[in-house]
């Protein structure tokens, strides 16, 4: 590969590793050209980009991203799936594809920031809730205490209103006037008219 072309590929891989939320290193042996094209199509719909590359170029791109400890991952024929969107969704698409194809496999993975994952650890990302679900759960947790707090403040006010209404309807607190901490309005109220036989 000419030096200029090689430099451009390394630059491109470096940028993709920086931008991706995660990346899967894939052993694509056994996959046909048609199957790789189908995998690319499925991944594009999930904000994942698949690229077949040389390990030497990928290793250089990783070094530029301060991921020197990942060198041992770059062995054998390698394709990289750069996951720019939701990690669980992208990982699930890969898992489902290789389960159906019965050839090829995820060899290992990289999380944003350079943490290396085994194939098993990376596959388990698919079991996590999607980012949208997590955000909805967090929003629910934040709203729930607020709703409970509002109900807590609201309930005594409603109960007090019902009690005052009942007191007014009866014409006072059982005819005893004001009581502890009582109301001047209740004390000054006219006594009920005497009952006639």
Question: How would you explain this protein's 3D organization?
Answer:
The structure is a single chain. This protein has a 5-stranded antiparallel beta sheet with strand order 2-3-1-4-5. The chain is built from 7 helices and 5 strands; from the N terminus they run αβαβαβαββααα. A hairpin with a 3-residue loop joins strand 4 and strand 5 (115-118). The model is unreliable at 173-189 (pLDDT under 50). The chain folds into 2 domains: 3-128, Alpha-Beta Plaits (2-Layer Sandwich), CATH 3.30.70.1730; 134-188. The chain has helices at residues 3-19, 33-44, 55-64, 87-101, 119-123, 131-170, 184-188; strands at 22-27, 48-53, 78-83, 105-111, 115-118. The longest helix has 40 residues, at 131-170. The chain is of the alpha+beta class and 197 residues long.
Distance between the termini: 117 Å
**Name of the CATH class of the largest domain:** Alpha Beta
> Helix count?
7
What is the C-alpha radius of gyration, as a whole number of Å?
34 Å
The CATH topology of the largest domain comes to Alpha-Beta Plaits
Which stretches are poorly predicted, pLDDT < 50 over at least 5 residues? 173-189
The proportion of strand residues reads 5-15%
> What is the β-strand count?
5
Principal-axis shape? elongated
What's the overall average pLDDT, rounded? 79
List SSEs in N-to-C order: HEHEHEHEEHHH
CATH superfamily of the largest domain: Ribosomal protein L10, N-terminal RNA-binding domain
So, CATH architecture of the largest domain?
Answer: 2-Layer Sandwich
Largest sheet, if any? 5 strands, antiparallel
* Class from helix and strand fractions: alpha+beta
Reading side by side through the largest sheet, how are the strands ordered?
A: 2-3-1-4-5
The level of helicity is 40-55%
Count of spatially separate domains = 2
